[in-house]
Amino acid sequence: MKQTTTLGHSTLTVNRIGLGCMGMSEFYGSFNEQESINTLHKAIDLGVNFFDTADMYGWGANERLLGKAFKGRWSEVILATKFAVMRGPKGEFLGLNGKPEYIRQACEQSLQNLEVDTIDLYYMHRQDPKVEIEEIVGAMSDLVKHGKSKTLRHL
To answer: Global pTM?
Structure first.
C-alpha cells in the first residue's frame, strides 16, 4: 500500500518515497536519456509521485529530461525544482543569486525547460547571503500569486 503525506503546509499529497533526479543528467558518471526516462516511468508505475530536480543540473538538461519523460503523465507527478545556483556555459559554478529579478527569470526558464505552465514546488537551492531572506521569499510568493508555482519553500 502506498503511504502518502501532505507536503508541508501545502495541498500537495506525495508518496513518502520520492526520486531525486540529479544523477540522470550530471555528477555521477555517464547517463542515458532513454534509460532515465524508463526509470522515471517505472517509478510512477510503482507509485512514486514526487520528483526533485534543479535548474543547475546539467544546465537545465535535467529539467528538459523530466519535461520529456512526464509529457502526458503530469497528472501523476508532483515536481519540485530549485533555483539560486548559477552555472556558466562550461558548467563552472558562478555563485548564488537570490535577487528577485533572477528568481523570476530562473522560474520562467524552468517552466520552459519542463514545458509546463506551473511548477508544483519551487524552492531555493542555497541562500544568497547578499540578499535579505524577506526579499527572496517575497519574490517567490509573487510566483505563487501569478500561478507560476503552486507552493514554495525557502530553506
So the answer is: 0.90
Residue with cell 510568493: 141
Give the domain ranges of the chain. Answer: 4-153
Please state the φ and ψ torsions of residue 48, each to the nearest 5 degrees: -70, 130
> Is 123 an annotated catalytic residue?
no
Q: Residue 90's CB: how many other CB atoms inside 10 A?
A: 6
As its CATH architecture, domain 4-153 has Alpha-Beta Barrel (3.20)
Mean pLDDT of the chain: 92
Helices (H), the chain: 33-45, 61-70, 100-114, 133-145
**Grid cell in block for residue 25:** 543528467
**Which residues are registered as beta bridge partners of 151?**
121
3-state secondary structure of 47: coil
Beta strand 119-124 with 78-83 is: parallel
122, 148 in Cβ contact below 8 A?
yes
Selecting among 57, 102, 122, 123, the annotated active-site residue is 57
Q: Which of 21, 13, 81 is nearest to 49 (CA)?
A: 13
The mean pLDDT value for 17-24 works out to: 92
